[in-house]
């Protein structure tokens, strides 16, 4: 059976998001050189995002397809609306993006039509996303407190949440059009 091109595209979106996630973490690694605790966690975190990208690539390949190029993916669209510059800024964006990927993968795993292989990938990535959300949030709180920036920092998270909601709604709309109203 020929692979469903809609699924190949969807998994390519997931792959693209994970690759961009790894890129974001590399930026943080370069910016947080004076924090050895963050260096350890960021490196593991980046390795896991890269592995997620691989798991989606492998899933696509196992279906007998190749990943398709995503020109205007999730993170690219967010980047058009806001460019994070400082560490707190980047951590705020990471919090929002991690929360979304956890929620999205959890929701996808519960769909009645998901095949066993895809479900295995979804469950495996979801396990890591839980840890990602919690340690990034802790580090963000720690830095915000150090810089006496609690309120301003929370506003930043809210700003990214708003931007992210808009982008997710756009992509969700596209997905619904491709798959029909059941999505
Ligand atoms: Fe991930
Ligand atoms: Fe993650």
State the gist of this model.
The chain is mainly alpha-helical and 183 residues long.
List keywords for this structure.
80% helix, single chain, mainly alpha, 183 residues
Bound molecules: fe (ii) ion
Calculate Rg over CA atoms: 17 Å
Average residue pLDDT: 94
CATH topology: Ferritin
**CATH architecture term:** Up-down Bundle
Q: List the total number of helices.
A: 6
- Which outline best applies? globular
Spans of 5+ residues with little confidence (pLDDT < 50)?
Answer: none
**Biggest pleated sheet:** none
State the end-to-end CA separation: 23 Å
Q: How many β strands by DSSP? A: 0
Classification by helices and strands: mainly alpha
Instruction: Tell me the β content.
Output: under 5%
CATH superfamily: Ferritin, core subunit, four-helix bundle
């Amino acid at each position: 059976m020929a692979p469903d091109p809609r699924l190949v595209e969807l998994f390519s979106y997931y792959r693209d998001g994970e690759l961009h996630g790894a890129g974001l973490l590399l930026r943080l690694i370069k910016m947080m050189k004076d924090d050895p605790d963050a260096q350890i966690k960021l490196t593991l975190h980046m390795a896991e995002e890269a592995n997620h990208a691989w798991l989606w690539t492998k899933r696509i390949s196992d279906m007998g397809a190749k990943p398709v190029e995503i020109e205007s993916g999730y993170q690219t669209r967010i980047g058009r609306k806001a460019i994070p510059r400082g560490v707190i800024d980047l951590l705020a964006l990471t919090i929002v993006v991690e929360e979304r990927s956890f929620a999205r993968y959890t929701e996808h795993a519960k769909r009645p039509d998901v095949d066993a292989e895809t479900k295995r990938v979804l469950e495996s990535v979801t396990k890591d996303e839980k840890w990602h959300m919690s340690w990034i949030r802790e580090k963000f709180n720690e830095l915000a407190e150090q810089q006496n920036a609690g309120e301003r920092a929370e506003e930043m998270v809210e700003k990214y949440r708003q931007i992210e909601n808009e982008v997710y709604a756009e992509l969700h709309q596209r997905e619904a059009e491709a798959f029909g109203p059941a999505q």
